[in-house]
């Protein structure tokens, strides 16, 4: 199983060391065009999609590890380009279901899942996923507009890490934002959310999804600041080795 290392946070190139993956990961660092943030993001996600599609066509289940959730749009698009019509299981402490009209912070990562579901189709490289085939897991830090949306009739189902319930049918993209893990166990997150599950509980839930045999690609987001100490860096390296094995 190939792991793609995508050291980007939105359209900002991160250092390779910011995501301390085990040896053997294939780094994806395309040259992005001059232009708007969204033009640059589309180019990045398109490059990820091409790598993912090629790997799936070769019979692999690739893992994509990046610095933010927006890269999941490229992973999703790659699965679609390989001929699949996937659902999404989206682990995240946050909803990521804002639109450009509802976001109050302006943080683009907060739109990620909503873009996967078809909002602002001109900005994304993927085809929309039907909300009936999307599951949001572990979300606990939600803005009022996100709560309103998720309480509506046309929104993805929400579950806890400990109780996934019924998974979407068909092939799946498994996305895990590492901030779903309790912030006390993972220092340095950009948007820490207390009260979450342990890393072991998240891994167990991931394994439950993987045991379906229907996961076409795995996407891991590492939205953290540079490690404040060698100990934190070592802990991150161990965590990623555990989650990508």
UniProtKB/TrEMBL annotation:
Keywords, in A-Z order: Hydrolase, Manganese, Metal-binding
Domain of life the protein comes from: Bacteria
Metal-binding recorded as keyword: yes
Protein's UniProt keywords contain Electron transport: no
PROSITE patterns in UniProt: ARGINASE_2
Stored SUPFAM superfamilies: Arginase/deacetylase (SSF52768)
InterPro entries named in the record: Ureohydrolase (IPR006035), Ureohydrolase_dom_sf (IPR023696)
Database matches in Pfam families: Arginase
Family of the protein in this entry: Belongs to the arginase family.
Name of the protein this chain belongs to: Arginase
Organism: Asanoa siamensis
């Amino acid at each position: 199983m190939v792991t793609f290392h995508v050291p980007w946070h939105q359209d900002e190139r991160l250092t390779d060391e910011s995501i301390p993956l085990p040896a053997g990961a294939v780094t994806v660092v395309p040259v992005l065009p001059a232009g708007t943030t969204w033009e640059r993001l589309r180019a990045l996600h398109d490059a990820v999609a091409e790598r993912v599609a090629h790997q799936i066509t070769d019979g692999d289940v690739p893992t994509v590890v990046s610095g933010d959730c927006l890269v999941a749009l490229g992973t999703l698009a790659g699965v679609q380009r390989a001929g699949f019509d996937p659902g999404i299981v989206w682990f995240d402490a946050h909803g990521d279901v804002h639109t450009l009209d509802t976001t109050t912070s302006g943080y683009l990562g907060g739109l990620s899942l909503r873009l996967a579901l078809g909002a602002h189709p001109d900005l994304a490289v993927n085809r929309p996923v039907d909300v009936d085939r999307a599951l949001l897991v572990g979300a606990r830090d939600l803005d009022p507009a996100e709560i309103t949306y998720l309480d509506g009739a046309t929104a993805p189902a929400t579950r806890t890490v400990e109780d996934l319930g019924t998974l979407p049918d068909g092939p799946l993209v498994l996305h895990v934002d590492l901030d779903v893990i309790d912030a006390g166990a993972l220092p340095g997150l950009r948007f820490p959310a207390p009260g979450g599950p342990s890393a072991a509980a998240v891994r167990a839930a991931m394994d439950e999804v993987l045991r379906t045999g229907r996961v076409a690609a795995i996407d891991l987001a590492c939205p953290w600041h540079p490690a404040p100490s060698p100990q934190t860096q070592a802990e991150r390296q161990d965590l990623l080795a555990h989650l990508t094995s």
